[in-house]
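BUG-281 | component: ligand-complex export | severity: low

The export step for 2'-monophosphoadenosine-5'-diphosphate jobs runs without errors, but we want the raw record kept on the ticket for reference. Input record follows.
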Amino acid sequence: MNRLAVIGHPVAHSLSPAMHTAAFAALGLGDEWSYEAIDIEPERFAAGVRELTERGFAGVNVTVPHKQAAFELADLRSDAVAAIGAANTLTFAGGSIRADNTDASGLIAALPPDFDPAGAEALVLGAGGSARAAAWALDRAGARVTIANRTESKAVDLARELGTYALEGVGPDEPIDLTHFDLLVNCTSVGLAKEGAPRSEPGADLKAMRLRADQLIAPLVVVDLVYGSEPTELAVTCTSGGATLIDGLEILVRQGADSFRIWVGREPPIETMRDAIRANR
Ligand code: ATR
């Protein structure tokens, strides 16, 4: 049996086991491959991963808060991992740990088939780890990337480091003008439902992102990395306004599909993976 897992802290609610298990079953690989969720505390990350290699695991997906630690632990790093400084996919082979970042490749794979990122004007909202992966991936795919963030200085620093642009001089209560952008990627945590917390007031999430509902229209493509049991306000507004929406669940499917290709070496059943995610959300 080739064992795989997603490791995180917390990780119990991860949709990845259901998605990969369904994919193995669909390809008749259920007796050869398995995928589970394993909680590893940050202090035990390196020791925990070593243990998995010793127990014969084939690889792992790595999620919050371990993506940077995964970068550090790896013996071999893909270009994306080296540039982003974070990894979400580890492969154990021949005693070494290889790191890939399918958050980056998955974002590009999730774009609509008729949308060419090369030459597109892309706005990345946020300046944390996921914004870094998105901005790097889009820049690499040939887009002209602008980074906008609530704390402007972080956008400026990230843009300088990646060689992209930063949005400057737009105040906290001023909407960002989207008219010349082809693609918007939400990499902020706005819209992320916190357990036990009441839902935000209507309009509050868009306001925090400095977006105007009347600009979320065709032909704009919007990627929202945030997902939960309910659609986000950004997702709902795009759907009603006419912008093309790629939601966080689709991004999860695409990063999973790219990890699957790396480990299994076969074409993943994307439809099956998508259905499994949507059934378990
Ligand atoms: P990740 O690792 O997922 O990228 P992160 O590093 O915590 O997450 O980054 C969260 C991003 O969401 C940041 O860009 C943050 O903006 P600041 O740098 O100003 O903190 C952004 N963010 C979080 N809450 C926000 C809010 N209420 N309004 C606007 N931006 C917000």
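Assignee comment: Attached the raw record above. Residues 126-131, 149-151, 154, 187-190, 208 surround 2'-monophosphoadenosine-5'-diphosphate (CB under 6 Å).
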